[in-house]
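Hi D.,

Good news: the full-assembly prediction came through. Inputs first.
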Amino acid sequence: MKRWDLVVIGAGPAGLSAAIEAAEAGMSVIVFDENKKPGGQLFKQIHKFFGSKENHAGVRGIEIGQMLLEKAQKDHIQVELDSAVIGIAKDRSVSVRKDGQTREVQGQNILIAAGASERTLPFPGWTLPGVIGAGAAQTMMNLYGVRPGKKILMIGSGNVGLVVSYQMLQAGCQVAAVVDAAPRIGGYGVHAAKLARNGVPFYLSHTVIRAEGDGAVKSVTIGQVDSSWNIIPGTEKTFDVDTVCMAVGLDPMSQLARMAGALIEEKGGLVPTVDEYGQTSLPGIFAAGDVAGIEEASSAMLNGEIAGLRAAFKSGYIDEETFRTEYKKKKAALGDLRKGTFSPENKGRTDLTLTSEGLPLSENLFEKGFLTDEEVTKYPGVIKKAGVHPVIECTQNIPCNPCQEACAFGCIEVGEDITALPRINPQADCRNCGKCVAMCSGQAIFLVDEEAGCVTIPYEFDPIPEEGEMGTALGRDGSPLGQAEIIKVRKSPAFDHTALVTMRVDKTLAMKARAYSRKTFSE
Amino acid sequence: MKTYGSDRGFSGEAFVPKEDDDVIICRCEEITRGEIRKAIYDGMRTISEIRRYLRPGMGPCQGMTCERNVRGILARETGLPLSQIPGYRPRSPQRPVTLAELGNESEEEGGGV
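Then the structure:
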């Protein structure tokens, strides 16, 4: 049996990060992945990531995946694809199926980084063709360029549901509604706001009653639920859609850890109990990424690095001091990502009312996906000022700070606490460069000149509007506000495929217009 | 009406059919919510017992899709929290393997470390 210092199961963000960390310490590393392409879910993530500037915030998932792969290649890490790990034993031997063969390899250390599978919501009609998982929708759109359907209803308002709904709009699908049984939108308000201003309605405290169709989905009926999750009679609403997309959570793929005999606990799914370095109850068997608990890819990468680092230390490849120093850095970065309104400890809470600054969290944003015109003025990213200036509609404590780096002129401050709401420095001079607009992962920054009635918005739909064209300015709730003239369109490698579109609207609409439709405006 | 001990979190009421009983829970083996609920009333109180009795989680996906939902049904019917309901016991092979693949084990000696 061939032996390796580290056998990694899963070539996603956690697995690759661990492999790189271990290989750079000098370990012999092999990575198995059952898919034909490495990168896990990263190559389906076409949106810019949140987080700190040091941890790739503002960079699209697909590019982070590419960076990891290049690093792995540079480190000569053996990544075996189309290779399913079908079994694992306590003695740290794993069975792999590849090319019509099975074989066994042994690891001095094993990292289980198999990711997660999608949860399902079994409702009448859920087995009809046209009912799909959000992951399937992403695979179709972002890997194969296939539109999952023409008109879609999304179940689930967590970040996955919100991000995939937006990608569906980008793919040219119509999103009829986003539905969630919870009373509040589960994902980031900024993700919800991108949908709302493009006309997608939210139905909170609603669930699916049934999907219907002869051989394929033709319609779906939802209804409002009461506090004990029963449908309130008379609240049923039917949508004619050809696709129902489920984004109702992920289940850690902990089967291999369970098979090996690791201690298991229920933590929003069955996960192996791990110590602070990701080691399971079985010495030398680690778990990182979604297997050890569902989190964002940025956290998965850091958890993977920590596990790789720990394995390198335990196997004698790095000394204790190096280990301690590196671990401390990574732990601090991980701690940053786990703070704020959506931290693991706040998960599922519906009673938060204030930001860490003591400002009211918008109930409207939680329930409908947009801030009202009045609410938006209460936050530190929104000031009144002559001339062009950034307006940052970032109102929840999300661990993210690329906007601060984006502005070379000191207009934007986040500070030490990465979850703090960005503040505008009224003394600094905005040069209208637009970098903050393009850099904001939440697309929550706009450049506004109230006197001139000019609003610059980030734009990620095809086709990009042309200078001189006339269309409709849309409000935060997606309602048509008035005529908009496109006066400037900026594209730059620095903006990474986000176009900056400047529209001229009636002066009174400058603080209201936040999206653009190419349709002609009519009263 | 059978009465079961409360030690396994079940009070022993009679089985009452529900409207969504015909919804499929395990797609691989085509097992419905009603069949699973009925199995609980027939005395199957752990996911492993249900698995042996009805075969959910025994198909190609090995319970990857239905495990959470079967656990959820068990939790609701028995009144136990999810934390007290273990999952299926995963066994090798975790992915469908042909007999030819199993018979064709490659010998790979030494190397690595």
